[in-house]
Amino acid sequence: MTSAVVIGGGPNGLAAAALLAKAGLDVTLLEAAHEVGGGTRSHEAIVPGLLHDHCSAIHPTAVASPALRALGLEQHGLRWRSADIDCVHPLDDDTAGVLLRSLEETSRMLGADGDRYRALLAPSVRDWDALAPDVLGPLLRVPTHPLLLARFGLPTALPVTALARLFRTPQAQALWAGVAAHNFRPLSRPFTSAIPLGILAAGHAAGWVVAEGGSQSIARSMERVLRAHGGTIETGVRVTDRAQIPPADVTLLDLDPAQVAALYGELLPTRVRTAYERFRRGPGAFKLDLAVEGGVPWTNEHARRAVTVHLGGPLAEVAHTEREVTRGRMPGRPFVLVGQQYLADPSRSAGDVHPVWTYAHVPYGYDGDATEAILHQLERFAPGVRERIVGRQVTRPADFAAANPNFRGGDVITGARTVPQLLLGPRPALDPYATGLPGVFLCSAATPPGPGAHGMCGAGAVASALRHLGVRSA
Asked: 40, 61 in Cβ contact below 8 A?
């Protein structure tokens, strides 16, 4: 029986292992932590019964992912849940940019910018099921739907700040900037519009959803698929030497490129090893989990019903803070993401005490304390929130890296979304998952299409591995 070893049990490693097992391979997954999941883990913290997501929290690209759909996770216990409103970006005058699942309703909420917003997103939303495999895959290949991809791709080349000129109102501009800030890149750079356009199209097609029971439910359902097809998982196994890797016909690595370079060293082709060692990292995340009695008292009524809230002020302010963190400087008012997953999944709360998930964009390797900066941003748009906080837990960039080596320096998206790395992955190659070693493939978020709980990096590596083996894809 053809065998496979997968190193790393994050969402991409799990997706890869499950897809390989579905294809009939004998699969063993090795995970360094004592549970699988990587960024898609959850934990009870601060208050008994209060459930917090470790990293990945809201999943517009996961629910619409062809890889996760192929695994049939809903048949293995996964349940997606949504709130009334997907995302809100409040401004200081108590107005906000408001994002709903419905493209038409969002356009209506954007008022004077509604027609422009609809024109920008409608074709991609309408054709998302056909478009998704091309958008969520490597660039250097023949697309399945070239005309659809070309129509989607033309505006993605623009900087976020340039495409923002399409909108007239500060609310629409702020909403666009907040979604674009998921790049962790200066918004004036080319191709920074690619990620927000993908997130928005996927979100309107499938919703900004959460996993019932925490993001860990995504990992657990993939684990069930893997085991159902005969795969095995060994946790607590940190692979630091290639001699630890069991012999197999193919090996897939849910690791960042630097770890692969250290693991295989001189066995890698020189050009590949050099590219992996020079792989650029992005800014970090400083996370603050809160237990909030009665929820956050947002002054904007829509924010009280939104699963995601972006705190960054107007477009110019978001652009400034993202530029600062990329330059290694900590802004006084950082961009802060707030997750209110309990609004979609009430089982995460403990009575009237609710888990509020926040993190700020900070410089790579930031060793300061961003707690007060995050709380100031919360107070800015929700005066009185401090009085409601009954507990808190901090996760610094170094804590992220200690729990998951892929998150070195607090870089939770595994690599800077520079133009070359966004479009090509860790190195220029026709196959971004190939390492140059026969039968060894990279499947982490460093490869296309990048970060998220969508499993598509794992699926791309599986397609390469199966081609190498001459096995028909699952």
From this structure: no
